[in-house]
Amino acid sequence: HVNVRFDGPTRVFTISNQKGGVGKTTTAVNVASALAELGAKVLVIDLDPQGNASTALGVAHTSDVQSIYDVLVGDAPLAEIVQPSPESSNLFCAPSTIHLAGAEIELVSQVAREHRLRTALNDYLAVHPTDVVIIDCPPSLGLLTINAFTAATEVLIPIQCEYYALEGLSQLLGNIRMIQKHLNPELQLSTILLTMFDGRTRLAQQVAEEVREHFPHEVLDTVIPRSVRVSEAPSFGQTVITYDGQSVGAVAYREAAVEIAGRAMTDNEKGH
Ligand code: ADP
Ligand code: MG
């Protein structure tokens, strides 16, 4: 059986890729659920106005619900808007609502506009010890994504094993360097996860090889296969971990979670 511990400082992941439809949200909720199953206390912050992560975690996010919008724009404490997810007693979600769509513009005139999430999260963590925070970002580099980068300790990039997979990646790396320089020197690109992998196609294999060549340390050994069960789960308000725990997608996301958890442990043991 896997033996993982969560005794280090809180790890805050931002799931980033400026492309839409590459598996950001799917990765955020399934890695979160799998880590919770392993015993970690996990908070997912839904920063995408579409609210797909909130849906997949079975958390209410209609327009009358208090959401991360009220935290970023209205100064509500994060603790006030966080909801438990029915997925697991270890799993919590700060939902997004459609109001968040206006936040990109409303934030422009706010004081400390790049640090709002970081400040709110630090206040929350001081009272609610949490092992892992996972921030699901919209597919753009606006103030919401910049808030996520500023609050995070690690970046996780999901890469879809398809044409143009690497397109936009150098821009993303440039953005990360810019954030490191000006807003968050501690931010690390720690993890790359290959998603929607179809082993039957040569193309998917070529993309995987190319990404591994460029990022030998960051790419997880685990690859997430393309699987209908993964895409069905959200319509039941569930992750695939709960929806069909024996399916190939659930097994793969569990393995990815074990790798992610294990990497922090190795670093701690090295004394980093
Ligand atoms: P993003 O958040 O980057 O826009 P999503 O996670 O929403 O991407 O994924 C885009 C679409 O692909 C969704 O319909 C999702 O259900 C589907 N999808 C994601 N991962 C898989 C997978 N491993 N197998 C099959 N479908 C997937
Ligand atoms: Mg998404």
TrEMBL record:
Domain AAA: start-end pairs: 11-188
InterPro entries documented for this protein: AAA_dom, DNA_Partitioning_ATPase, P-loop_NTPase
Species the sequence originates in: Microbacterium capsulatum
Positions of transmembrane segments: none
Name of this chain's protein: ParA family protein
